[in-house]
Amino acid sequence: MLNLVLFGPPGAGKGTQSNLLIEKYNLVHLSTGDILRGEIAAGTALGMKAKTLMDRGDLVPDEVVIGMISSKLDNNSNSNGFIFDGFPRTSAQAEALDNLLDEKGTSISAMLSLKVEDAELIRRLLSRGEKSGRADDQDESIIANRINEYNTKTAPLKEYYSAQNKLSEIKGNGTVEDIAEKLNNMIDTL
Ligand code: ADP
């Protein structure tokens, strides 16, 4: 199996690149942000609780997202592999993911980490907010909170994967095609 963690701050381009990678490598895309927005759209109790946190740019509790990923892994047991997008975001999530994959006799192949400057992230998110109407993309203080959550709780996961020799860092600026090519080259060496 090819199991990739696509990593980087909000606005780094994880969703865009995931969509290209799932086609090319025939993988299942697991985006916790997309799954949570699906719960909100469906009006579930979980979605309603998550919405308050997401609208503020805070993280949703670990047990909620770990439970969601666990059931998605169970439901896609015949896949070629997974792209984890926006997950794991904390060390508890990273450890839980390793355990879940281990139970299935597989593991993370690599973490591909996209690096983009803060000013560019803010520009991209505000522009996405104008088009999508996503509340958390429309307010600079919420965006700043998300970047801060990333820097304090999520970025340290680079050390976690680096200790397993699985970290590859890629510059996330340039065209979508340029970045896709860099990711493909990296994956083809795995
Ligand atoms: P982005 O990467 O652009 O911030 P996402 O769609 O990945 O967008 O996440 C949107 C929001 O969903 C986050 O700010 C957070 O509130 C929540 N969320 C998504 N994934 C997780 C996760 N793995 N752990 C905790 N909260 C999450």
Quick summary:
With 190 residues, the chain is α/β, with parallel strands linked by helices. It has nine helices and five strands. The protein has a single domain, classed as Rossmann fold (3-Layer(aba) Sandwich).
Highlighted features:
about 190 residues, alpha/beta, Rossmann fold, 5-stranded parallel sheet, 9 helices, about 60% helix, globular, binds adenosine-5'-diphosphate
Description:
This protein is an alpha/beta fold. The chain has one domain: P-loop containing nucleotide triphosphate hydrolases (Rossmann fold, 3-Layer(aba) Sandwich), CATH 3.40.50.300. 58% of the residues lie in helices and 14% in strands. It contains nine helices and five strands. The chain starts with a strand and ends with a helix. The mean pLDDT is 97. The site of adenosine-5'-diphosphate has 18 residues, from α2 and α3.
